[in-house]
Amino acid sequence: MSTPGAGRLWGVGLGPGDPELITLKAARLIGAADVIAYHQGVGKQSNARRIAVGLFPEGVVEEVLQYPVTTGTTDHPGGYAGAMAEFYEECATRLGDHLAAGRDVVILAEGDPLFYGSYMYMHDRLADRFETEVVPGVPAFAAATAAVASPLVRLTDVLTILPGTLPEPELARRLADTDGAIIMKLGRTFPAVVSALRQAGRLEGALYVERASMPEQRWMPVADVDPTSVPYFSLIVVPGDTKPRRARTTTGAAAAPATAEVLVVGLGPGPDRWITPEAAEALADVQHVVGYAPYVDRVPQREGLTRHASGNTVEVDRARLALDLALAGERVAVVSGGDAGIFGMAAAVFEAAEDDAYADVPVRVLPGLSAVQVVAARAGAPIGGDFAVMSLSDRLKPWSLVEKRLRAVAEADLVLAVYNPRSRSRTTQVADMRRILLEHRAPETVVVVGRDVGRDEESLVVTTLGDLDPETIDMKCLLLIGATGTRVTPAGQAWTPRFAG
After folding, report:
1. What is the pTM of this model?
2. What is the DSSP annotation of 462-491?
3. How far is C-alpha 437 from the chain's CA centre?
C-alpha cells in the first residue's frame, strides 16, 4: 500500500558498464529524478555513478550509500551480517524520508537491479510502503558472452548461473551437471573455481572475461589467467557447446569395446564417514555414476566422472542406462542410499539384466551400512535377536500382500523394521499397520522412530505402539517395532534380549 502524496521509487538497471547500454527508459528516469542514490565501497568511487553521471539532471540530490564493510571482517557485535542489516535499515530510512516528502527516488544498479544487486535490499524494505517499479538492465554475463562471441546455450541446453563463493565440491558438482554456465563473484575465489572447473571436466573451453563492455575489457581462456590479477568485475563463461558429450557407439569393422562390469554401490544412510572404504575406492575409479539425484549428489565430482541423475520412480530405466554404458566398455557405478540390496538399486539392476542383451555384463554389488542398522545402533540394541524388515510402499506390490506379511510378522513375535512408512500420496499405511499389529501386540510394545539419522536434522524417539501417532511419520522415518520381550533401560535405550529374539 503506497503512501498518499509520496514519491515513487525506481530501481534502475544500468547494464554492465558501457553507458551506451543503458536503456532508453532508464535514461529518461535518471534525467527526471529528484533524488539519485547509488552504492559504493569504502574508499572507492561508485561504479554505478560513473556509468550514469552524464544523465544526471542539474540540481539533483545525490544519496551516497557507502557500505560500512566490504569483507566478512567487522567489529560490529552482529558480525558482517549484523553490520550489513543495520546499514540497509539506515539507507532505507534516508530514502524513505525523501519518498515521504514527495520526491521521486532512482536507485542506480549495475547490471540488473534484481540480479545479485544491492537494490533488492532497499526494495524489500520500501516497496510495501511506496509505489515502486523496477527497470531491468543488461546483466554482466550477457555483455561477457557478447565479448567472447560464443553461443552460451542452444536448443534445450540448461544454463546455470553460479556464485564462485560456493564450496568447491558443490561448485564442481553443479558445473558437471549443467550444459552452459556463468560463474560470478570471482576475485579471491578464483583458484578454487579453476579447481572446480577441472574436477567437472569443464576447464577446457571456459573463458574468463574482465570488465565486460568497459574500455578495460579483456578476455582469455581461464587456464591462461594469472589468479593474482583477478578483480571483482570479472566472470567466467562456460559455453554449453564445450560440455563433454558421451561418444556414441559406432558400427563397422572396428572391434567392439570390451564389456565392463556394473558396480551397485551402497552409500550408507547419510554422512560420508559411513561410506565404506571399498565403496569409496570403487567410486574413485568409475567413469559414470547413475542413480536417484540425491544419492548421485553425494558422490564427489572429479575430472573424468560423468553423473547421470534421475527421479525416484525410474529404477529399471536407470539400471538399463548403467548396463548400456557397461556394454560400451564404460566403468559405471549405480548408487543407492544405505545398502543397495535392501530396498535399493541392486534388485532393479538384476531385473534389467534379465534381458538377453545384457547376458555378458557382469554385475557386482558392494554392501553399504543400512538405515536399519544405524537407527538400531542409535536406539541401543533392539534387533539383538531375530527381526524382519518390510516396506510399507505398495507401489510394486498390492497392499493386501503387505497386510498379510504384517500379520505373519506380528504372529511370529518378531521385531519389525519398517521402511517407506508414508509419503504424500500414501497417508493411511502407518495407521493401518498400527491397527494390525495391535491385534497381536500390547499397546506398551516398544517403538523406535528414527528420522534423518546421521544428518543434521537427526531425531530419535522411543515411544510405544499405543502412543505412536501416524501423523508424525513421513518418508524420512524408519520405524522399529519391538517384540514382546523388547524393553527400555532407565536411560531410555531400547533393546531386545537374546533369549526373547
Report:
1. 0.75
2. EEETTT--GGG--TTEEEEE--TT-EE-TT
3. 39
